[in-house]
Amino acid sequence: MIPGADAAPGLWQPHDPVQPAELPRQTKEIAAGGLTLECSGAAELTCTVHESAPGVLEVRVVPDRTAEIRVGWRVPCVDATAFWAADGGEHRGLPPFWRRPRTAALEKNAPVGCLVGAGDVALCTYAAGEVVRPVRTRTGVVEETGDFGFWVEHEADPRGGLLLRLDLSRRHFARTLTDVAAWWGALHGPAREVPEVARMPAYSTWYAMQQHVDAASVERQAGPAAELGCEAIIVDDGWHSTDRGRGYGYAGEWEPSLAAFPDLPAHVAKVREAGLAYLLWYALPFVGRHTALWERVRPYTLAYKEHMNAAIVDPRYPHIRDLLASRLTRAVKEWGTDGLKIDFIDQFAVENPPEPGPEADCATVNEGVRRLLAQLPGDCLVELRQPYVSPGLWPHATMIRASDCPLSPLHNRQRTVDLRLIAGPLAVHADMLMWHPGESPEHVAAQLVSVLFAVPQISVDLTAQSPEQLEVLRFWLAFFREHAAVLQRGDFRPARPDLAYPQVTARSADTVITARYAPLPVEVPAAGTLFVANGDASTGVLLKVEEPGTARVTVRDCRGRAHGEELVRLEPGIVEVTVPVGGLLRLER
């Protein structure tokens, strides 16, 4: 055992610090929803519980003075299959309770998690109302009892206290998480309106060109991208410097490279004339040591990243915020771009940052980041990226992208589905899709199907694709566009997070779209239209029929070519239909 005044009695918690003896913790227990909630903190506490919906509790713990407040509870770990967390990455197993606590704040992660049980029910979904300041959570299997333990803590004051939502309704886990996103929206006010272009396919230069980007290469992709169905182009790293080595030693001044972009406004206008919105990439926190700004910002940094050859500047200083905001604002106000791709906000989350100096106007980095983002243009497209997924960022963004996973359809699927569950109003974008020049049309299509419920970003040389690869792009991007309302804003039901979502479904009143990534049966609705996108290597698609009737069935291959259409009689049971890899089944009842 490792002792600690803030550790639960008898539980091994090696990462808990020993609390100072002069800060005795007050503890109150509350019985609610079949749980015993233990509320504790170095203050007198007032605890209230409100059932906002059947099985959904809102717990508020208010201290009589500002203090770290914790709420802890346990549920029996029975029929549990997975633990879902916003920063869980590819790990969906059940963690031990003694592991290091996680921290969520404005610049990284989100304060939410879900213990998922058999049948994809949520055994317990929790979320904190605090979305800017740090929130620490510990979750995991309690070895001593076989329970699954939770605690959530953050510094709270007498004005608002610690607010916690607990969903014990045993509904589908996806419904409980999307309800958390709605709850955050209600707590923190309306987010920025997301224009439709943010939900349409886009082209990105990153995997296609890396840092070898220039005006001519971008313009060469613009026409084909627009013709295939893209509505935006994102120009990534490389536009601001002639340096072609990885790292950020030349980042921070954000002046276009005259060798690569001799007339950036004219270039932007040319791309926009081709029919594409234009977004420009920025590594927001970095100032490189090879820039003219280096000596100027050195006293105002949070940390130096040796491997990046750059420092992370400190947004607690107003002149640093002004410096960064003015650089990014130029892209929209002077160069005519439609938006910004803002990278590396999570790098502001420096452990143990230095004490702010007298020129700082806020005490925490979280508040500095919030003020910095508020200074950026509010009328343009803004892309963010995992792992900075806090709802506190919603007022400053229009879309959020899965973190980098080149040529990994499984990771792209898992990350985009995770984002869809808690992204609220933001358009969710897949990581950029790339493939080897010799890739088959079927597997190009399978990559597109892997991110069917997000916005695809294409990042290959479109002028070098085979006719068959271009047919795949044209067919599937048209499907994304035509069915964007259902795919991105329909009722969303991913299955089996413990198996990386082998089947995902979205539905509207009369349309159901299911993507299969494993040979699992697909339920056929009693009425309306069913689409089944085959992202699996098997071609025998099993349809589970409950209501008898007649349906018209059409099958298309990965290039959109019809492989037959017939009127069939459906009887209750399992019906097998052959759908090519990367192909599409349409069933109309």
UniProtKB/TrEMBL annotation:
GO terms for molecular function: alpha-galactosidase activity. InterPro entries: Aldolase_TIM, Alpha-glycosidase_related, GH, Glyco_hydro_36. Gene3D superfamilies: Aldolase class I (3.20.20.70). CDD domains: GH36. Transmembrane segments: none annotated. GO terms for biological process: carbohydrate catabolic process. It comes from the Bacteria. This is Alpha-galactosidase. It comes from Nonomuraea jiangxiensis. The lineage of its organism: Bacteria, Bacillati, Actinomycetota, Actinomycetes, Streptosporangiales.
